[in-house]
Specification:
The protein has 30 helices and seven strands. It has helices at residues 3-54, 60-73, 78-95, 98-114, 118-134, 138-155, 158-174, 178-194, 198-215, 218-234, 238-251, 256-272, 276-293, 296-312, 316-332, 336-352, 356-372, 376-392, 396-413, 416-432, 436-453, 456-472, 476-493, 496-512, 516-684, 688-719, 729-739, 741-746, 765-781, 837-847; strands at residues 725-727, 750-756, 761-763, 789-797, 800-807, 851-857, 861-869. Strands 2-4-5-7-6 form a five-stranded mixed beta sheet, covered by helices on one side. Strands 1-3 form a two-stranded antiparallel sheet. Strand 6 (851-857) and strand 7 (861-869) form a beta hairpin. The longest helix has 169 residues, at 516-684. Mean pLDDT is 79; it is low at 1-41, 533-553 and 555-561.
Amino acid sequence: MIYPFIFQLLTGLFVIYLIEALILRTLYIISFICIAQLAVAQAPQIDSLQKLIDHEGDTPRKVELINSLSFFFFGNDIERANATTEEALQLAKKIGDRSGEGWALAYRGLYYFFNGELSTARSFLNQSLSAGKNLPDQNLQTYSLTQIGNFYRDKGDFDSTLLFYRKAQKQNSLKPSEYYESVIMTNLTRYYLVIAKPDSALQIMKETVKIREQLNDPIRLADALILLGNCYLGKEDFNEAALNYERALKLSRGEATIVSDYHQNMGEVSFKRGDFQAALDHWGKVLTYHRQSHYKYGLASLLLRMGKVFSQQGYFNLATDYLTNALKIAEKSSYQYLAAQIIYEQAWVYYRSKNFDLALSNLHRAERFFKATKSQPEIAGSWDLRGLIERRLKHYDTAIYYHEKSLAERMRLGNKVDIDAGIFNIGEFYAATEKYQAALPYYFRSLKMDTELGDNYGRSLNYNRIGNIYIHLSRFDSAKIYLEKSMELAVPTSSKEIFRNNFLDFAAYYEKIGKPTEAIRYYKKYNQLSDSIFSKQTAQSLAAYQTLYEVERNQQQIELLNKDNQLGKALVQKQQAILYSAIGGSIIFLALAGFYFRFNRKLKKLNKEVSEQKEEIQAQAEELTESNQTISGINEKLEERIEERTSELKQAFKELDTFFYRSSHDFRRPLTTFMGLAEVARVLVKDPAALELFEKVNENALNLDKMLRKLQSVSDVDMQTLIYKEVSVKELFEIELDELKHELDKKKIRTIISVKLERPFHSYGALVKIILQNLMENAIAFCTTASPVIHLSAYEQNGEVVIEVRDNGVGIEPEYMERVFEMYFRASEHSKGNGLGLYIVKKTLQKLNGRIELQSEPGKGTTVKVFFPQRLD
């Protein structure tokens, strides 16, 4: 019987509710105690450095000691590092210590980097890099290049990130240092983890751990072990990840950064295993560390993670507040990639809270950045979420398209957690569309992966869904078994949503087997649990809001301190400005007095000269008046002559255009006769040599006919009177593919059509067809011989209709990109084209007030986008 189990479950939930608020409130006190203990453990090191500094005069040795103290403060209190880096920089300048100044500049850059002021950080790092080159100091150059790489990593510019890490490695190779090599490699590892390449990260990190073991520095080894654990975490090997985190904690000696990283990543392990409460416990401790260390990127990243947990648990308002605070920090500090991840998570919150318009809006914002940075895992996740939103909007064809597209990309990338999510969501799609037999295999595949990953939350969710499917299929015994399994796993994961789903499904189960009393009992349990969740959410929200309040207050205090410093500097500058102004004013007064005396003497002399020149000017004016009258008469005759010439040119142009138009038609008649005879010859003539000759004649006639049609279209564009009406782009695509079917089949070119226009497209159809025809002919003419494919797509973008033709052909060399729109221009002597295609496209677009963009890479293909204004008349 399940009744005793349910009774025990509800009793347990009630007890959890009573004690949870107390646990949450004490969590922050415990966190502060942990940090305080770390500070006590680290105090002797600070004191010993401070004593050495106090007993040292104004020497390079003192600058070196202050820089060392700054580096130490970066691990636990960035604002104190701000003061010491500034002190070191000023002292180094005072005593002319160029080496100490260079390192102080680097640490000033590091301070601004941690504080989220990336542009200022980059400025200081550039100065430290220049100082390293001038000294020269190989280590300073290597360190500065590495930190500039980190700057680009936090901004989300991953190409520049890798470029500067490679420069740092090259610099270090000139005078190899194992320590600095390990610094570069740890940051390379972080880079590969961010771009979802855990295998590459793991390979680098294993080598780094070996180097750090030889350095005999437990703190730096612990840092490497944390990153090694992150590599295993990226590969979904949670047990190995946790082992490395534990090893790092044992070596940490209470060092705040390592302890914080330990809790951060153990929280991530708990989150991926579905133990959300354990994740929050770990992250609550990390939040306290970040409030003290003031590392903006780490704080924003942590708030994002906590927002994810609250979203998973159904606390949407709380999740929104955490994510909003994270986004404020990320946007203010220009952490573009992190901001996109936060916006993407906000889209999930809006989806789960059934606000689909906002979900789509946020999803589009995030997806634009992911595409710009080629972040394939996030792009695949965006497609999956798009599928979920479209399903809830009952756009089922679009939904399954995005789900399958996402799963295919995730399978290619090989991330098991993401693949699992994609498989589960396709199961959800089929269940929502009442295709229960189709849904079951996906749920079972997802269940198998959750079991391999050790994800109890995922297993519980899949058991629930399978049980629900069996109720719909009237397989009630199986339904009961799977629902009971789901209930058992819901206890360790503390997932109230799964409890609620199971209560509802048990109610449906008993209703189906004819036991209404039991069904009502489960409905009551569902309502009671909903009430308890609401109460618990209120208590948890209060505690979480208190945490957010402390974060915001801490940020405000930092801003006030910065403003005080700025005001102090401004006051000093103001006083200096007043002094300088007084001195400058006196000098200017004396200069003006001397100038006035000299000016007065010259003025008398000039008056005399002006009087003489005035008489000369008057005489010249009379001569000019006569000249102007003569020129006026000439101009009148010239204008008449220009009008006559213009009229003659217009008539000549009209006659030439008419001749050109008729001539092209006249030329085409014998050409069509040639082509007709060639077709007849294929039937009547049996001699292979003759057939080959006729084939060549036909091919050349076709090319000449194609050129005449292009020339004719140049004339057509100028002669057409535009009458806008609705254009069916999909039908236009199909007509063009049908007309070019022979050439497509001959070259075995595969075509793909995608039309996503939410409203009718109004334009002049004949001219749109000319544009598409020329783009298609170019794509066919320059196709590749290996698996050629042409993508035709149409969509709306910023109020414009975009028609895109993309191929994987030979591409265009960069030096020819600016000239391909010229008439008769061909990028290669071997080109079989006539150099008119893109010229006609551009000329036609000008007629339609459109524009064109061209992207091409030699050997990889070309993408042409044509933009049309969206007319509503």
